[in-house]
Amino acid sequence: MRRQNNIIRILILVFAVLIALLVIGGGIYLFSASKQLKSIALQPEFSETSLEVGTQYAFTISTQPSKAGIKKAKAVVDDPTCSFEINDDGQAILTTGMSEGTVTVYIECKDIKSQVLTFSVVDSVARAQAEAAAQAEEQKKAEEAAAAAAEAEAAAQEAKKYVKCTGDDVNVRSTNSTDGEVLGKAKKGYMFEKIEDVDDWTHIKYKDKDGYIKSEFVTEISEEEYNEGPFEEEEKEEDKKEEEKKEEGQTQTKEEAEKKAAEDAAKAAADAEKAAQEAAAAQAALAAAAAAQQTYTLSGVPVTATQYRNLLDMFRFATPHGTDEEAKAEVEIHSGAEIRTIIQTKGW
User: Fold this and answer.
1) What are phi and psi of 34, to 5 degrees?
2) What are the pLDDT digits (tens) for 179-224?
3) Is omega for the bond preceding 65 within 30 degrees of 0, making it cis?
4) HEC states along 233-261?
5) SS3 category, 216
6) Residues 75-124: pLDDT tens digits?
7) How many other C-beta atoms can be found within 10 angstroms of the C-beta atom of residue 261?
8) How would you classify the pairing of strands 117-122 and 39-44?
9) For a 10 Å CB count at each end of the chain, is N or C smaller?
């Protein structure tokens, strides 16, 4: 009987040990399962969609469950010129290479992979320099075109020809035909600027119009002879003015003449003032356009005049006296990438 009781005690003890082992094993399994990695997420700590060459960018690594270990995690990047590593703070750090293109990154641990992120890599400085060079080339072409146009105009001026009327009261017509409207009559000795020969007609400038005169009634002359005159339109204008003066002398009183002279002087002064204002406005517009096209360089970054002034004004509060030189020094403490980020953020 006593022996039987001992056997029962031993069986109870063994059974208790087995239950304890099961409980402990189950606890260990559940604890391990609670820390087993299920997923990895990669979150950029920056807002740019295009990355700058030769710059570092940080990513936050989050896991599910949050306490899952990722000591054996591997940071993968597809561009051999870039580096992608996990630092001691648990961040993934991407350092872009020095050439433009695209870069793809992700985190992998125990056959579990994060989402794959792809970014474009650009060289803003090189692009800005290329744009500035293109603008300079366009400006150079525009200047060359303007110079060519000026040369062409000068050549046209040099190639001008002139004729003198050899007949008396010769019809000047609107077309190179005897059916053309008679614009006027040219007296002997009157001179005109020649445009071209059209059959047996000479195309001339006649009172700011296109006129045609029979070639048999004109002969070519030099520019020096042409400049000596007389010109038909000038003589007629002088005759008209002389007639007007005679009529005015007959009908105007002395007071009326003085009043008209004063009105003419006032009108001339007003016209002169208006011309001066228009010239000043044009000069100011040219100066503003030249200032807007001027470029500056801050920390190796080319910026426009507007961007340069905005950056100086932004950092002027940090300078002792607020001068442009002190503000510029304060701006250049920042890197080129930081300056580009400020300009993009402010929308300048």
Assistant:
1) -70, -20
2) 999 999 999 999 999 999 999 999 999 988 999 999 999 999 988 8
3) yes
4) HHHHHHHHHHHHHHHHHHHCCHHHHHHHH
5) helix
6) 999 999 999 999 988 899 999 999 999 999 999 998 899 999 999 999 99
7) 10
8) unpaired
9) N
Q: Note the helical H segments in 47-160.
A: 124-158
DSSP assignment of 122-135: E-HHHHHHHHHHHH
Amino acid at 328: K
- Crossing angle between the packed helical segments 324-331 and 305-315, to the nearest 10 degrees: 90
Query: Alpha carbon of 336 to those of 57, 121, 129: distances in Å?
Result: 15, 16, 14
Question: CA 255, CA 266: separation in Å to the nearest integer?
Answer: 17
Distance CA 158, CA 152 (A): 10
Tens of pLDDT, residue by residue over 275-321, are: 778 877 767 666 665 555 667 787 888 888 888 888 888 888 777 77
Q: Angle at Cα 201 formed by Cα 199 and Cα 207, nearest 5°?
A: 140
Instruction: For residue 311, give the 3-state DSSP assignment.
Output: helix
Q: What is the DSSP string of 160-201?
A: -EEEEE-SSSEEEESSSSTTS-EEEEEPTT-EEEEEEEETTE
What separation in angstroms does the CA of 13 have from each of 6, 20, 24, 224, 342?
A: 11, 11, 16, 139, 75
Beta strands in 258-310 (DSSP E): 295-298, 301-304
Per-residue pLDDT reduced to its tens digit, 229-241: 765 545 555 555 6
